[in-house]
Amino acid sequence: MIQVERLWNRLMELSQIGKQPSGGVTRFSFTKVEQRAKQLVASYMEEAGMQVREDAVGNLIGRRDGRRADLPAVLIGSHIDTVPHGGKFDGALGVLAGIEVAQTLNEQQIELDHPIEVIAFTDEEGSRFGLGMIGSRAIAGTLTLEQLQQVDQDGITIWEAMEQSGLDPQNIGEAKREPSTVKAYVELHIEQGRVLEKEGLPAGVVSGIAGPYWTKWNISGEAGHAGATPMDGRKDPLMAATEIMQFMEEQAKKHPATVATVGQISVKPGGVNVIPGEVEFTLDLRAIDEAIRDAVETNIKATAEQVCLKRDVVLNIEHLQRIKPVPCSNSIQEVIREACRKTGVEPITLPSGAGHDGMQFNEWPIGMIFIRSKDGISHNPAEWSSKEDCGKGTKILYETVLALASE
Ligand code: HGY
Ligand code: MN
Ligand code: MN
Question: What's the rounded mean pLDDT across residues 162-181?
Fold first, then answer.
C-alpha cells in the first residue's frame, strides 16, 4: 500500500532545494534551482517505473501505461515552483503523491485500463512573471506567444527565460493535449485555509476554485522636498495609493468569499526626505462568484479614478491575468467522496480560495482533494501538514485514481 515514509522523505528532500535562511522555499520557474528540483522529481518518477519526458513549455510528465493504449489518460498533477519563501507542501505534495500512487500500483502489480500521467506543471504560482499556470495553459492550448512577453523584476521575459532553459517558445503549441487523450484531471493539494482544521478532518472534497484577477497599478505624481513642500498642492502618488488600498479592503470585506490583496509595492525614488514621484503595486482580487468579483473590480476602479483626479496624479492599470472561477466535476467529486469513505474519512465539501492548475482545463472534468493545513497557514515558511494527513490524502488520491482509471 502507499508508503507514507517514502512520500514524506521525498517531500522533505525536495524542500531542501531552494531552501532560504527564512526556512521558506523559493523556486521560481526557469531557474537553475527549479531545474535541480525537476531533476530530483524526474528521478522519483523513474523509480516509480514511469516514462519521463518534458514537454515544450517544461512541464515534467511521468507516464504509466494502462492495459489499453487506446483509452484516454487520467492526469494527476500539481507544481513544484513556489512563491518567495513559500512552504514545503504547496504543490510539491500533489506531484509527489501522484508519483507515490504510480509506484504503489507498480509494487502491487495492479494494471489499470487507462494510462495515468503525473505532471509537475511549469510556473503555477506566477511569482516570477505575474502570469501563473503557464504549463497548464499550454496543455489546455490557451497560452499565447504574446503572454510570453510578460517580464520578471529584472525585465527578463518569459520568452527569454524559456530560451535560457533550452526551450523554444515558438513550439509552445506542441504542449497542447487533444481532449480525446485525457479522461480527467485530479489534484491533491493542501487546503491553505482553516475549514478542515475547524471540522477536525484530515481531508475534504473541493467543490470549486475561486478565480484570481491580477493587475499591476502605477500611479505617478510629483517628487518633491519632504520638508519644504506644504501638504496642500502635493501630487503624492503614495497617499493616493493608500486611499485606494483602503477602499479595496472595504469592498472585499463587503462580500463573503471575496478577497483583495496588495502583495507587491515599490516607491520611487524612495528617499526618506522625498515625496514619492511614482508608486507601483499589485492587486490580487478573487471571488468564487465571478459577477461579484467583476462588480467589486468596477467599484474599485471608479473610486481610484476619483481619488487620482482629486490628488492630481496619473493612474495606469496593467492587466496581468484574469481567470474564471471554476466548478469541480460533480461526478469526480462523488468518486472522491467514495475514496474518502474507503479511507475512513468523513467526506465534507469545501471551496478553494487559492487558484490551481485544474482551472485551466475546460475540455475535461477536474477534481481536487484537500488535506488539512495547520492554522490555515500557507505561502509562508510555517506552512505545515502532518505526515498522517499527507498519507491519508495520498490514499484518497490512490482510491480515486483506481476508480477513474478502471473501465
Ligand atoms: O495564487 C494562488 O492562488 C496559487 O497559490 N497559485
Ligand atoms: Mn501557492
Ligand atoms: Mn499550489
Answer: 97
323 lines ligand 1 (CB under 6 A): no
Please, what's the b/e burial string for 141-165 (b: 16 or more CB within 10 A of its CB; e: otherwise)? Answer: eebeeebbebbbeeeebbbbbbeeb
Greatest CA separation for the chain: 79
Could you give the CA distance from residue 101 to residue 117 in angstroms, rounded to a whole number?
A: 11
Relative orientation angle of helices 32-47 and 92-107, to the nearest 10 degrees: 20
> Which residue has the CA at smallest separation from atom 6 of ligand 1?
125
Distance 89 CA to ligand 2 centre (A): 9
Determine the distance separating the centroid of ligand 2 and the alpha carbon of 122, expressed in angstroms: 13
pLDDT value of residue 288: 82
Query: Each residue of 277-332: pLDDT tens digit?
Result: 999 999 999 998 899 999 999 999 999 999 999 999 999 999 999 999 999 999 99
Output the 3-class SS for 32-90. HHHHHHHHHHHHHHHHCCCEEEECCCCCEEEEECCCCCCCCEEEEEEECCCCCCECCCC
How many other C-beta atoms are found inside a 10 Å radius of the C-beta of residue 20?
12
Q: What is the DSSP letter of 21?
A: T
How many CB atoms neighbour CB 407 within 10 A?
Answer: 9
Cα 341 to averaged position of ligand 3 atoms, centre (Å): 25
In three-state secondary structure terms, 171 is helix
Per-residue confidence at 71, pLDDT binned at 50, 70, 90? Answer: very high
* 308 within 8 A of 240, measured Cβ to Cβ: yes
Encoded amino acid at 171, one letter: N
Are 62 and 172 in contact, with CB atoms under 8 Å apart?
no
Q: How far is the CA of 407 from the CAs of 31, 72, 111, 353, 403, in angstroms? A: 41, 11, 12, 33, 8
CA dihedral 359, 361, 366, 369 (to 10 degrees): -40
Question: What's the rounded Cα separation, in Å, for the pair 152 and 129?
Answer: 5
User: Does 389 sit in the ligand 1 pocket, CB within 6 Å?
Assistant: no
C-alpha cell at 351: 471551496
Concatenating the DSSP letter of every residue in 287-353 gives ESSHHHHHHHHHHHHHHHHHHHHHHT-EEEEEEEEE---EEPPHHHHHHHHHHHHHTT----EEEES
Tell whether pTM > 0.85. Answer: yes
Element containing residue 163 per DSSP (H, E): helix 158-164
pLDDT digits (tens, 9 = 90+) for 267-287: 999 999 999 999 999 999 999
